[in-house]
Amino acid sequence: MKRFLFLMACLFIIGSSQAQTFKADDINIDYEKFVLPNGLTLLVHEDHKAPIVAVNVWYHVGSKNEKPGKSGFAHLFEHLMFNGSENFKDDYFQAIERIGGTDVNGTTNTDRTNYFQNVPVAALDQVLFLESDRMGHFKGVISQELLDEQRGVVQNEKRQGENQPYGQQWNYLTKAMYPKGHPYSWTVIGEMEDLNAATVEDVKEWFESYYGPNNAVIAIAGDITPDEAHKKVLKYFGDIPAGPTIERQERNIPEHPTDTYQVYEDRVPEARVVYTWNSPEFGSKEDLHFDLISAILSSGKNSRLYKNLVYENQIASSAGAYQASSEIASRFIAQANVKPGVDIEKVKTEMLSEINKFIAEGPTEAELKRVKAEYFADFIKGMERIGGFGGISDILASNETYHGDADYYKKKLQFVENATIEDLQATAQKWLKKGKHTLIAKPFPEYSITETSVDRSSLPAVAEAKPSKFPDVQRSNLKNGMEIVLAKREGVPTIVMDLMFDAGYKTDYMASPGTASLAMDLLDEGTENLNSLEISEKLQLLGADLYTSSDMDISTVSLRTLKPSLEGSLELFSDVILNPSFPQKEFERLKTDQLNDIKREKSQPITMALRVMNKYLYGEDHPYSGPQTGTGYEDTVEKLTREEVVNFYDTWLKPNNATLVVTGDIEMDQLKDQLEKSLGKWKKGDVPQVTFTKPKTDTKNTLYLMDRPESQQSVIIAGHLTDKYGENPEYAVEQMVNILGGEFTSRINMNLREDKHWAYGAGGFVMGTKEERPFLVYAPVQTDKSAESVTELRKEIAEFVTTRPATAAEVEKVKTNQVLALPGQWETNAAVNASLRNMVKYDLPDDYYKTYDAEIRNLSAEDIQKVSKKMVDPEKVNWFIIGDRAKIAEKLDELDFDEIVEIDVDGNPIKPKTIKKEKDQVDQ
């Protein structure tokens, strides 16, 4: 680990005006590789910065291994393997939650299936038992009941994806680019008829074919030695027999000799133009060339497509390109969303013009330097984490699985480092016109098994958990009144800082809806010395990210950078904060973008509800009554002027109204010295107070119905206002929410997803505001179960505070999961800074997170029941449903709502009477 940090430090040349210099040979991930006699490959990376380990299991099987007519099997099987095994007959998420697992999930793509989780090192034996049991002891639990249950979940996932704007795009591209019968000619999630046709025998055959140890890689990274990991993996996996020989499908890039054209219609706010070319396979030199080409075309404000279409000509609201890499063939994709009122042909022409210009001339030296720096910086930032996508275990497992060499990432980095202007131009010229096909075969080795002493009649005991580590909190102030909160962490040289202002969307109450959002978006679009594109270029050269944001209570300017670049990054950070120029041209562009954002929000089911919900929960005369998204309304944003945005800045962005929250490897004295130089000249000033009055609404049991014709799902959101943060013990509030709707295994999700199969995911939460806040439950459900889902949600809410309160077993489960998850929760600097932001926002004591586990451990079922009765009131719940009115209204009318009010996308009542009253009048 020390060697890794030293090498990272050597990579950088400090200087605010220079690009970082990166060398692929200097980047190294230490690991040891073991191959068990049964063919299982083990990769181990030792890292003792936190008492956690990441376990990442990759099976070299994806949708390309399926047969025509049996699509979706790989993804369906990913779901099945989360539901217990022959020796552990329980939900996998339940087990991982009980041992404090974080970042737990499974994913499937065209080429592989992976399962990953971060757990306290003390729980490693239990995870290895579970992973080995579903690898070697799963066939016996495959039943018709399990198949039907998870088939319903997957089909709801497919409906949910296709119900989103542009949700059909990948289906069309898949069929257009790959001929029938090609391994990539069907989507990963599969076709409905294939899923319906799957039998238990089909599923068992699939398992036996592909999930043997000789087709798997396990990467373990974290607080463990390679020898320890090898002994444990041999113990749990060594007796699993190898599966049958698997025929590897090699490079197979179809010819697409002529231009083809297709038009489809969908419920979308804007037209979209998509261009796709077949391209080289994942991990090849030219595949990496296309990663750089796509970055030049679409990464950052200086990218060619963004600069032309979005920034200068303003004919598109978004534009981008990416290399959709897969193992035997890839696709290079460029796309743009057409702004309303713009001719689609103009966007098509401009996109092709930029791409053809690149083919003809190649990149500039400055472009190539910028995207190389960004590529290396992103890779290094990923190495801060041991698990999850892009983390150490993911890097090792993916390279071993795809390329047979865990070190192959070095070759890819070398491809990037060595790429020249001529290389990228030649690759573009070769592939954006035609493709070709090559086939290679290789023999497989022989396999055997080893004896084991594992007792599979029960789970291994969880060893004593190591304590979580939250850094000490240091505080100071600049002379101008700005507060500083620092969590010093040694390790990977990243610095995370968030400058928090007591402002947010609530200030729109004293101005105009949408002002705070637009003002913060405009803040980093230009300074007295730099324009927007120059700011973007400096950030890329520094390997840094700077962005602005707001929520209901807080407006934030955030910086993510590398320690050697801190001085230059702070120089740019302070320039943006102290010297914004608010250019009129950028103001007009971003105002138009915000208006288009509002249109998009009005087309998407969940944001349709978020835009109008507060108006009915708080009443219109309240600082929180505006859209939860903060974008405002079309008529208010249309009238906004640059002067109003400048006034927001002058009113709220003052050092004495700000707290800078920082996490990273830096001393307070050093940080304060640099801040005095950069932000110390900022002058303090008077800041107004936002006055909160009692919400002026007393509605209850009212349904607000929004019509979205032809929706495949209904989105249900229900709740009421409850106590503000701090009026109840938040430790108890959090665990109450986890039991009812906050975790995968919560009551609501297990009911509507796992038991009824009506939803892909459902739950509940308390929204994060400083004053009275909404307690909400939600469920996107299939249309024909809308009314039934309301009934189930009512039942869950009511029983939670009456006949079926939180049980001791439920409380113990969420307590244990919360405490054991803490070590992994604070793995990265960004994660620690998120907790610091929460501490500052809600004025928590500095030792809040140091004593957090003790507070959780001391909670009882009575504590949870007490806070539940204070914060959950079934009689006060109001309901918001977005769906196809023609299909759901009649059954909803039978649910005894006090009132059903149909509202439009702006939250205005369409008819001031209920559906029931309307029907009664007709009957009379």
Characterise this structure.
The protein is α+β, with helices and mostly antiparallel strands and 924 residues long. 41% of the residues lie in helices and 16% in strands. The chain contains 33 helices and 21 strands. A hairpin with a 5-residue loop joins strand 8 (316-324) and strand 9 (330-338). Helix 12 crosses helix 16 (421-431) and helix 17 (515-523) packs across helix 23 (642-652). Mean pLDDT is 89; it is low at 1-18, 436-443 and 912-924.
Morphology: globular
- N-end to C-end Cα span: 80 Å
- Give the helix/strand class: alpha+beta
In the sheet with the most strands, the strands line up as 1-2-6-3-5-4
Count of DSSP strands: 21
The helix count comes to 33
Q: Can you give the mean pLDDT?
A: 89
Throw out a few tags for this protein.
924 residues; alpha+beta; 6-stranded mixed beta sheet; 33 helices; 41% helix; 16% strand; globular; disordered C terminus
Briefly summarize what is shown.
The chain is α+β, with helices and mostly antiparallel strands. It is 41% helix and 16% strand.
Q: What's the SSE blueprint?
A:
Layout: H1 2-10, E1 32-35, E2 41-46, E3 52-59, H2 73-80, H3 92-98, E4 102-108, E5 113-120, H4 124-136, H5 144-162, H6 169-177, H7 192-197, H8 200-210, E6 216-222, H9 226-237, E7 272-279, H10 285-298, H11 304-312, E8 316-324, E9 330-338, H12 344-361, H13 365-382, H14 392-403, H15 408-418, H16 421-431, E10 473-477, E11 483-488, E12 494-502, H17 515-523, H18 532-542, E13 545-550, E14 554-562, H19 566-578, H20 584-601, H21 605-618, H22 634-639, H23 642-652, E15 658-664, H24 668-678, E16 702-707, E17 713-722, H25 730-742, H26 747-755, E18 763-766, E19 773-782, H27 786-800, H28 808-825, H29 829-841, H30 852-857, H31 861-871, E20 878-883, H32 885-892, E21 899-903, H33 915-923
Parallel strand pairs: 2-6, 11-15, 16-20, 16-21
Antiparallel strand pairs: 1-2, 3-5, 3-6, 4-5, 7-9, 8-9, 10-11, 12-14, 12-15, 13-14, 17-19, 17-20, 18-19
Helix pairs in contact: 2-5, 4-9, 10-16, 11-12, 12-16, 13-18, 17-23, 25-28, 25-31, 26-27
